[in-house]
Amino acid sequence: MDIKFVKRDVLKEKPDQKNLGFGKYMTDYMFEIDWIRGEGWVNPRIVPYGPIEMDPAAVVLHYAQETFEGLKAYRTKDGTIQLFRPEMNARRMQRSNERLCMPSLDEETFVEAIKALVNVEKDWVPSEEGTSLYIRPVVFANESALGVHMANEFKFVIMCCPVGAYYPEGINPIKILVEDELVRAVKGGTGFTKCGGNYAASILGQVKAEKMGCTQVLWLDGVERKYVEEVGTMNIMFKIDGEIYTAPIDGTVLPGVTRDSMLQILKEWGYKIHEEHVAIDDIMKAGHEGRLEEVFGTGTAAVISPVGELVYKDDSVTINDFKIGELTQKLYDELTGIQWGKLEDRFGWTQTI
Amino acid sequence: MDIKFVKRDVLKEKPDQKNLGFGKYMTDYMFEIDWIRGEGWVNPRIVPYGPIEMDPAAVVLHYAQETFEGLKAYRTKDGTIQLFRPEMNARRMQRSNERLCMPSLDEETFVEAIKALVNVEKDWVPSEEGTSLYIRPVVFANESALGVHMANEFKFVIMCCPVGAYYPEGINPIKILVEDELVRAVKGGTGFTKCGGNYAASILGQVKAEKMGCTQVLWLDGVERKYVEEVGTMNIMFKIDGEIYTAPIDGTVLPGVTRDSMLQILKEWGYKIHEEHVAIDDIMKAGHEGRLEEVFGTGTAAVISPVGELVYKDDSVTINDFKIGELTQKLYDELTGIQWGKLEDRFGWTQTI
Lengths: 353, 353
Hints:
The structure is a homodimer. Chain A has helices spanning about 60-65, 85-100, 105-120, 195-210, 255-270, 280-290, 325-340, and strands spanning about 5, 30-35, 40-50, 50-55, 65-70, 70-75, 80-85, 130-140, 155-165, 175-180, 215-220, 230, 235-240, 245, 275, 290-300, 305-310, 315-320, 350. The first copy, chain A, is an alpha+beta fold and about 350 residues long.
């Protein structure tokens, strides 16, 4: 790919690495490429980060033809920069785009574009403990047309922002509301994709959870309102009687890269893993019987979020005395160890830039 | 509301009224108003229609916080212009926005904004038989922020385009695929709203239907895959043994303004109406037994779309010999008669501008 580079006159000042937050500071540049029906992907370029012009009748603003991805670049102790399994994001975006009738970059081009942008922005990859450069690829239909249809023009953009540790004070258990009214996804829908519509639909559940003193929502299946699926924007795992339970990837749950990585590590460590539909009633029962040893969410942003309490209707269970579990901590240390290059990458997950 | 007006130097040339199509020609102006948390709705203005600047990290491009509406302005024989039940669109957008955690204009302001814009654009309201001015209000989150949250900044825009008769050669029956795999909506989701995500998720079904030689999709419920819900972007009604059946408004089906108007007319005409869940198996059975007299979709764009054939799995039924039904035609004539001011508006549905 021949990427055009448009230099900006003045670079931004880099923010304090101790107060990065999430998504507060966009870097100097972004990658852009356009798709036009009949021509394919055209005009790859790295240009100064800034506003794009959009027609008010652009398809994305009315019919939400849009998908995105999220991954990070990590600075290792020796100063090199590495990506974590970017090919997984490329493939997931392809699956998202198929469902949404949108064009995809091939895997190689997707990864090449990310590497090219991170290479330009390498001074933006922070070095403080727990920090990283968050990378956000997004593709949306920018054709101007009010009829509902498979759009004929798309724009793919990659933007970056340095981010701090998701939980600056270290990973602490959170309290979660099991949502029994609102639904995130159903088979035959878009639950397995990272399309905008899934996230728009989820905000009300999040607001409701916060009103009830909870940090996140645990979604149940949309058909029987019985089986656990995801928590907020993360996958979720349960350790019961020493074994791991998590929802299978069969249409409604996002196939998380962190989820997949955790499962591989857990398998290596000899854990028995059940990728199956688990009823919330069984989880609560295990909790009351003292067999629900650990619960944690997994995702790129937070890596791992221990769950200290589950609230379901009039019932609630506390997990591991609201303290981070031993396995949860061990998984966090293992995965972040590989990501920041402190531990040997025996799975071949990292790619140096 | 004190609406600022920014005049454009040169007005566009008006298109040929005989070849308007749908959404091909945007008018000269658009209405815009912004919402900022803590301030509310600010800066109402009518400005030249044209591109808006958007940050690549705008919430709408990633998380699809967006809803829209659709209605029309009609030119009557004496040259006056009238709207059809715009307060219904105002109220529906409020319900959409509540589900999506978005701010709404109050009903009065919503209608006032539409009237102000149509008044400026009155020369754009076409007079040819079957033509009208399509009006598209849309609201979306334009805050720049990558965290999933209830956004703090929104933009509400109204745009217009003159449109031709939806079916230029007159209303003709269409062939419809009953979709048994993909799902449009489920209880607890966003099916009753006009949010972008619903439409993005529906495109694949439409593509699949077209591949099978059908014009539209008939969606079944997401839980049992058994009950009829909507067709494409319209509501659907069945006349069986002289009585009318249509899905109830209970969470998954869009509360159509045309649907509501048709039901009021049908009630006045003495038809027995069943707003209830009807199984596709019963519809197909009625078809094979010759009791399925008429089937039609209802919506603002096409007003009424007669269905000539239903294809479901390996089965299919033809309705009324693939000819438009007597009641379907009568309903079309009645409703369009009121909309274009040819018939007395005994329901008080129209508002003159």
